[in-house]
Amino acid sequence: MKTGATKTKERVAVVIPAYNEAANIGAVLATLAQLASVDEVIVVSDGSTDATAAIARSYGADVVECPVNQGKAAAMRLGWERARDADVVLFLDADLVGLAPEHVEALLAPVLAGDTDATVGVFAGGRRATELAHALAPFLSGQRAVRRSLLERLELDDDVGYGVEMALNRALRRMGATVKEVALPDVSQVLKEEKLGLAKGLAARMRMYWEILREIPRG
To answer: Which residues in 7-17 are b (16+ Cβ under 10 Å) and which e?
Structure first.
């Protein structure tokens, strides 16, 4: 009787860029702690002045601490460079609400099975504000799994900031990589206005939109 070769388990690293997310990151890390498919969790505390790094360490995460805030693109790059032994890197935002193990598995499964090179998670049935944003522009989602071999080929400027999702989509498209959308039922995230207050939150949102919009002409 012939026996097929057993496929070696691929290593999965989760990278979470975080700036002052002490109030939110614990829920995300608690979910990840339930998953045998996740081999390492890397939290990049991007200039945080609160307890983000300490909370991440309490959940066993490998923490990269940046002395000053460098922006989301730089934080993501530091994370995937840290994940040297990973075959697949899963990026998650630190402020997710309603994330469950099945959502993480849904993002990872198509990549680990070889059905696609990357996935992008789309909120569905969570909060109306975040669900609408994803419905209109799913390519802006920060929840995505990518083969590390593709990340190694990226030429990504740190100064793109929140435009990193558009820049990443553009780079993957140019490399001919396949990307699959994955629905994330009942998942949403904390709004900036809720974290920072109305005025500061709105200012932060406008800055985020500007960083995204300035990436459009580079498409």
So the answer is: eeebbbbbbbb
Burial 146-164 (b: 16+ CB within 10 A, else e): bbbebbeeeebeeebbbbb
pLDDT band at 120 (very low <50, low <70, confident <90, very high): very high
Name, in order, each residue with C-beta under 8 angstroms of 118's C-beta and a sequence gap of 6 or more: 111, 144, 145, 146, 147, 150, 172, 177, 178, 179, 180
Please tell me the distance from the alpha carbon of residue 179 to that of residue 118, in angstroms, as a whole number: 5
For 163, the token pair is: 């435009």
CA–CA separation, 113 and 41 (whole Å): 21
Domains of the chain: 12-190 (3.90.550.10)
Reduced to 3 states (helix: H, G, I; strand: E, B; else coil), residue 212 is: helix
In tens, the pLDDT along 24-74 reads 999 999 999 999 999 999 999 999 999 999 999 999 999 999 999 998 889
Q: State pTM to two decimals.
A: 0.81
Which tokens sit at 142? 């920060």
